[in-house]
Amino acid sequence: MIKNYITTAYRNILRQKGFSIINIIGLSLSISVCMLIIVIILDQYAYDNFHSKKDRIYRVLSDNTIATDIKIRFASSPIALSNEISKSSTLIEDFVVLENSYSDEAKYKGSSLEVKSLFASEHFFKLFDFPLRGGKPEDVLKEPFTVVLTEDAAKKIFGKDEALGNEVIIDSLTYKVTGIIPKTKYKSHIQFEVLASLSSAEAKAKMKNKKNFGLDWKNYYSGYVYFLLKKDVNPDDFNPIFDKITAEKYATDKENKVKFRLQQLTKITPGPILGNEVGLAMPKVFIYFLIGLALVIMISAAFNYTSLSIARSLLRAKEVGVRKTIGASRGQIIAQFLIEAVMIALISAFIGFVILQSLLPAFAGMKMMSILQIRPEQNIMVYLWFFIFAFVIGLISGALPSYFISAFQPIKVLKGANNIRLFRKLTLRKILLVSQFAFSMIFIITIILVYRQLNMMMNAEMGFDKKVVYNIDLQGHKFDQVKDIYSSIPEVEIISGSSHTPGLGNMWGIKLRKKKDDENIKMDMFSADDNYIETMGLSLVAGGNFPKGTNDNGKFIIVNEKAVKKLNFASPAEAIGKSYWEADDSVYVEICGVIKDYKYVALFMNSDAMVLRNKGKSYRIASLRISSPNMIQTIDKLKSEWKKIDPAHEYKGQFVNDEIKEFYSFFEDIIYTVGFATILAILIASLGLLGMATYTAQTRIKEVCIRKVYGADVSTIIFLVSKAYIWMLAIAALIAIPIAFMVNNLWLQYLAHHVDIGFGTIFGGAFIVLFIGLAAITSQTLKASNGNPADLLRYE
Predict the structure, then answer these.
(1) What are the helix (H) ranges across 16-173?
(2) Burial (CB count <10 Å: 0-12, 13-18, 19+), residue 479
(3) How far apart are CA 663 and CA 561, in angstroms?
(4) Which pLDDT does position 394 carry in this prediction?
């Protein structure tokens, strides 16, 4: 019986070549994209799965609530928490502490390079199953000034020399290499090149007369605490312990409310977006985005298949009627249609797999893939997922047509499928067409909006001159030294010192008080000199620049317009000359100027009250405003002059515009991905509309021939046939436009800066569907009208 079903399905697929090709192309394209997304998602869920104790390892997160309404969740937590819990609790078996050193300079035989470093407590290799060569897991991080290197880091630092047992200078201190981590296919959220013993960090702190290392409860920014829970311990059992600790340690802190909670190791990546994450990984929200993208594309293709299958089934209604008349049961007819659907899905999956092989290299070259360490692998498990996915798609897309057509009564369908109605005045054909048009409009409008939003973020005006300002990393050198050397270059108009690059989302904070005993007014802050406003092309709206000769005292501030409002001044001019107590430095600072608001943070973040403060010791960047007919030649001069400043370290500089683009390169990759999805969506929708147009032309082919016999010309026939579809397109637009508006407004409202939905986008999406629909219907009507009526009506 099954063999007969397969044979019949195969013959039907070949007989209806046009419908089969449309379905297979649409499904294979969508399945290939969905396969790619499945591979990426499986890759991301493989993080930290190689640890044997992964189900019992938990990381402590810090939830910080500022001023009752601003909630920030950190992946980090105070190091002191580990000792407090280990002494008082019987719930844990072991613990590990990490301290983030961000990046350090490793030196060996006169050469130096930056490395990503972490400090780790001695039980690190007992808790985590990283491969280790050279020493015992419990000993390699036991002593101060010992390090374990990754295999790649060892080659970078020592070259051909043996790394194990050798010494390397990191941050001016000598460390002994006690272990090497070989290359592995496994991935972890704990990312480093150099892993130094935590006792080294403690020894460094003592050298600098810092006696409170590991005891500061307010430092929940750089430490990471991991607990190995005892068997059968519930993570919720820690909640009362954490509540007691926070009540004791933060009782006097009126500004911040800190809460601790546990996060299972396997739920870190992918997981929620957290501050101070120890490594880069794909957040779960992006996984949801990919899943949503896959669903929308797959649903579009499946909807095409379903609607076209129903349409084709109506043409095969008499066949079904005959089958039922000679004794076929409803279950047998359903099985026949389902097997046909699954066969088309499996054929599409095979073609989709071939397409996937060409997609993988293209996506692997994206910066997003390398930043997030996405290395899609194909194995038996992945192939099994592909087969299951295609099989399920076939069942789902074939379920409705098979159920629907198998319910027809033989007497009714043998009289003619065109008379089949779902409602009194609506034929099934019209419902299918309106649904197809509406779904296509919603999808295309949504994709256009996503593309516009991402494109806006990449090219938005930010309120400062980003194309002519060139940043040079001071790398610890004094700004005045760098300024003196680069000022001699004619193409450099002006030089400014600052702490941060605007538009990237990084900033410091400042706490101002009207009086010493008042509550803090928190604002964002950049450190900058008196050339900063001119260099960046900012606009003063009141007051003036920093007074000359005050670039090092930090006693003057320039605020933006939002700060004026936050300080409750009626106008910018009213703020000039007012003094505030700066809590951290215990000094009064005076407002000397007000600048126009500009985007100093990333575009997906809300800009707030912002302060420029003249603290010369905080400068990390030299910003050069350049005017040159030959930028490449000028940059070469800058690189050459750097050798006078620091011959040992590599020159680091780039235009602000390039720096911002590099920051948004992740989003640029998303634009390419969404753009690809847009083209794919329109192609799939076009295939669906073409298929439905072909079907509708076939159902009215006799009408067209009769009109032609009675003397109607081609243009008249096209108009008469298309008129009904214009009404259906109008109805589809009335349904789709409000739904598209509401759905897209839901996600746009959560963005700090977003595009307006606008009539252009709405009607642009509707026009695309209208154009494709009319083009498809016109082409098929034209084809029918050019046929020979004698051939088409010979049996009538």
Answers:
(1) 17-44, 80-88, 124-127, 151-158
(2) buried
(3) 26
(4) 80
